[in-house]
Amino acid sequence: MMEAKLGLPSRIVGGVTRSVSDRITSLLLPASPKTAPGRVEISEILNILVVRPDEIGDVIMMSPFLRELKRNLPHTHISLVVKPAVRELVEHCPHVDEILTFDWKSSTYWPAFRNYARASDFAKRELKSRHFDLAIVPRWDADWYYSSFIAYFSAARYRLGYLPKHEVERSLDLLGYLGFSILSDALELWTTPEDEAHAAQVLEDHSVRPGEALIAFGAGGRHPYKMWPLENFAELAASICKEYPCRIMAAVDPSEVELGMKLQKRVGDSLIDVTGRATLRQFAALLRRCQLYVGNDSGPKHLAAAAGVPIVELSWSERSAILVPSSIVNRFKPWNAPHRILAVEHAVPPCSGACTARESHCIRGITVDMAKEAVLEQLRKATPLFNGSSR
């Protein structure tokens, strides 16, 4: 038995890319044969399926892959699946023996499930009878083209693709590739006793009482399209603090001093703003003392996750991205911390899938009521203060 590296790290071997399709197929069909992680019987590979029904650039960038695959396995029969618009581009490719086309459709009504069914029908009709030994999905990014679903239903003996993993897992995989063992994937914050003492003093100086919940508002962000409007944060703070005993802390990057001042002006005395007056470590120590982080996809969100603080993330993407494990939303979601990700049902035109605007745009579709409901849900889980009646 040979290792199936094929010029690729072993971390990608062992099963088709696990997207939403995998979760659905596990309910629809009994599991088809799978390879043990990192191992494929190369001598048994005679019939290969490569699934690439995405765009022109994606297919062109795959040309070295096809060339080297055929060079390493010259006696195999290679079938390539592309979308109809790209077929002409690959018709004379000398590295494949057969070209098949799959045309996924964009739809606004249950688009995913329609395309899952279409992919399933295509695979059963065109692929299953070909008895593939190996199905390969070369796409690394989110599987918007249903490639993994096609590979699954092809019933190939082995399936090879990138596993949809969080950035934490990807970095640890590099150590795994070197043969090292991983004892823990927990995030860490390296604060000092002085940092912790400073945080305690800040809360004392701001008269935070033992019965009050401290909620971090992550209102900042590197990109405007990722930023929920400040007026929404202010309205959320007013609503929660009116009903429940709590205080708000500005959780923005130390460089965003002006943003902290604007938030202070809108929220008022219930806000604790140490922006620009606390080091990163001191800020992290303050986050440890919070009962909840609510805010944008930004650096402080990950600091809160490392501190073990429950999180309500306000996402700039649409809800469907949350369902796709390989999406950027899931690659950078809060790691090992209780969390809930809020997103709009559909991106606001002209955006599609995720926000591409230069200003706060799609994220504005997340209402204050939506955020409040999620905040209270997380707080009720995290602290007994919110399980009783309001003020």
Produce the secondary structure layout:
Layout lengths: L1 E2 L16 H9 L10 E2 L6 E5 L4 H6 L1 H10 L4 E6 L4 H4 L7 E4 L9 H17 L6 E4 L9 H7 L4 E4 L5 H11 L15 H13 L7 E6 L11 H14 L2 E5 L6 H11 L3 E2 L7 H9 L3 E5 L2 H8 L4 E8 H4 L5 H4 L7 E6 L23 H15 L9
Parallel strand pairs: 3-4, 3-6, 4-5, 6-7, 8-9, 8-11, 9-10, 11-12, 12-13
Antiparallel strand pairs: 1-2
Helix pairs in contact: 5-6, 8-11, 9-10, 9-15
Can you offer a commentary on this structure?
With 391 residues, this protein is an alpha/beta fold. The protein folds into two domains: 2-164, Rossmann fold (3-Layer(aba) Sandwich), CATH 3.40.50; 193-381, Glycogen Phosphorylase B (Rossmann fold, 3-Layer(aba) Sandwich), CATH 3.40.50. The chain is 36% helix and 15% strand. It contains 15 helices and 13 strands. Strands 10-9-8-11-12-13 form a six-stranded parallel β-sheet, sandwiched between helices. Strands 5-4-3-6-7 form a five-stranded parallel β-sheet, with helices on one face. Helix 5 crosses helix 6, helix 8 packs across helix 11 and helix 9 (230-243) crosses helix 15. It is elongated. 39% of the residues are buried. The model is unreliable at 1-37 (pLDDT under 50).
